[in-house]
Design goal:
By secondary structure, the chain is an alpha+beta fold. The protein is 37% helix and 21% strand. The protein is built from 13 helices and 18 strands. Strands 6-8-9-3-16-15-10 form a 7-stranded mixed beta sheet, with helices on one face. A 6-stranded mixed beta sheet has the order 11-18-17-14-12-13, with helices on both faces. It has a 3-stranded antiparallel beta sheet with strand order 2-5-4, with no helix packed on it. The chain is globular, with a radius of gyration of 23 Å. The protein starts with 6 loop residues before the first helix and ends with a helix.
């Protein structure tokens, strides 16, 4: 049941491209002999159903740069033997007409319906802009529910940092970001040892709550109470300041621009060591600094001031800006890559699903004389969040509202909380080694989202010796997301210079 075209024929068809067209499909399907067809239809979990509610119809995209041209035949054949064998990637989401419940129903998968390989003119004037526009256009569409809700777009065109680009797209109901990232990595191997799975960096501060005394219990309870009250107020009436980063009503339905900016992981670690903080503290501090620089520029533009190169030397930001991020936490015990490899081999589900909580993370917006203050303030805030039950509380409230009032009420609650804040923020650790995806050496990995009721999402991922800021921006609200990315990079350099200068002073 499998038909293929030769690589030479594929290259010839690519070379004769006169526009954006689809290559001839390769009929590669799975059959009902797979173990997953022996399972009974399962209902979607409440969290999975939530991602089908209006205002919460979120898709995850994951961009991968490749060192060489991508061979679609090889990718398709390997996907059939791995990813497609996972039950969630080979099942339809079918609504029961009588009950209204949505169930997972296993189905045959035609891989050609999921792997899209457009023909691209190799002489296109701006390849980087073309790839960026292509990915942005994906955010204008959804995946037809008559097939499993994922696809992979292979763009064989040379850009600044890749010979080809792969773009996975998953509906968020398939799983949370950490699960999907780990599953994707289960399809990779180390470039230096193709029999070895990649490894993720160990987080020594992975324990979310550390109770060591009666006082620590009291602190945890107080922080949790304050967080709970802020959550309730945000769900009812408390909104962030209407800054140039705050999206307007209906922002979740508008297309996105995806921008990535990479920095040296060694620079981030240098700040971490100099200030005796965590990598997460540094990343949050840099984000706070970058947002402040960008807002200072935008407010200067609004006031027709600061159009020159010295706009960041004056503070145009209004006082008392409330700007918060919805910061996501994975509530599941660590998902192991090798476990998901076994799940794909056996065609079983294992531990899977959307098990995420979140905290409302305030950013102190404003220009500061000492760049290190951004990191210090971020550390103080996140340390309080670590000693609270806020992520569990958010998950519990969603579950409680679901039981009492149904899925529509949960959808409205989450939409209200998300819309009343300014941005989504998330970070996922990536492989420590260079990896290969079915023989394609990967130069970068950049996950993000669209469909969320915010104008901005900042996702941070590590890969080898790089740390990448991935920006998902509504261009109606944020017309220059590349500038925001540059402000994040510049902020790290300023913080690093200050940290090393302070450390040098101490050594004297």
């Amino acid at each position: 049941m499998k038909q293929s075209i030769s690589l030479s024929k594929y290259r010839k068809s690519m070379g004769s491209s006169q526009g954006l067209k689809s290559l001839k499909h390769i009929n590669t399907t799975t059959t009902k002999d797979d173990p997953r067809f022996k399972e009974e239809d399962q209902p979607l979990s409440p969290m999975a159903r939530l991602f089908h509610e209006p205002g919460s119809n979120v898709y995850i995209v994951s961009m991968m740069g490749c060192k060489t041209k991508i061979n679609p035949d090889v990718i398709k054949q390997n996907l059939v033997l791995s990813l497609v064998r996972h039950p969630r990637f080979s099942s339809l989401q079918v609504t029961d007409k009588e009950t209204g419940n949505i169930k997972w129903v296993p189905t045959n998968v035609n891989i050609d319906n999921h792997v899209i390989v457009p023909e691209i003119d190799p002489n296109i004037e701006s390849p980087d802009k073309f790839v960026e526009d292509y990915i942005s256009n994906l955010s204008r569409s959804s995946i037809d529910r008559s097939q499993p809700l994922w696809d992979l777009h292979l763009l064989n065109i040379k850009t600044t940092d890749a010979e080809g680009t792969g773009v996975f797209r998953f509906h968020h109901s398939l799983g949370d970001g950490m699960s999907l990232m780990t599953l994707l990595l289960a399809c990779t191997r180390q470039a230096s040892d193709t029999d070895a799975l990649p490894t993720l960096p160990m987080n020594k501060d992975s324990a979310y709550i550390k109770v060591t005394s009666v006082w620590s219990v009291l602190v945890m309870l107080w922080n949790s109470f304050v967080a709970m009250m802020m959550f309730v107020c945000t769900g009812l009436f408390l909104k962030d300041t209407e800054t140039p980063l705050k999206g307007s009503a209906g922002v979740e339905n508008r297309p996105r621009r995806f921008v990535r900016k990479s920095v040296s992981l060694a620079d981030v670690k240098a700040v971490k060591n100099a200030m005796n903080v965590t990598l997460n503290d540094v990343v949050l501090g840099v984000t706070q600094a970058g947002l402040s620089r960008y807002l200072n520029y935008r407010y200067g533009e609004i006031n027709r001031i600061g159009r020159g190169d010295h706009h960041d030397k004056k503070d145009f930001i209004p006082k008392g800006v409330r700007l918060r991020a919805t910061f996501f936490f994975n509530l599941r015990a660590t998902t192991r890559i090798d476990t998901l490899v076994e799940s794909m081999k056996s065609g079983t589900l294992g531990r899977w699903g959307n098990q995420i909580g979140y905290v409302l993370l305030p950013f102190a917006i404003g220009l500061k004389r000492n760049p290190l203050d951004y990191v210090k303030e971020a550390k103080a805030v996140i340390d309080k969040k670590k000693v609270s039950l806020e992520p569990l509380f958010a998950y519990f409230v969603a579950s409680l509202v679901l039981k009492l009032f149904g899925i529509k009420a949960v959808g409205k609650l989450n939409h209200k909380v998300f819309f009343n804040t300014t941005l989504w923020f998330s970070n996922v650790p990536g492989p420590e080694q260079e990896v290969t995806f079915y023989g394609q050496d990967i130069t970068y990995i950049a996950p993000s989202c669209y469909g969320q009721p915010n104008a901005l999402m900042i996702h941070i991922v590590s890969y080898m010796d790089k740390l990448t800021f991935v920006i998902s921006a509504d261009e109606e609200t944020i017309p220059d997301p590349h500038r925001l990315g540059d402000d994040l990079v510049e902020s790290l350099q300023l913080i690093k210079a200050s940290a090393l200068a302070k450390e040098s002073t101490k050594d004297k």
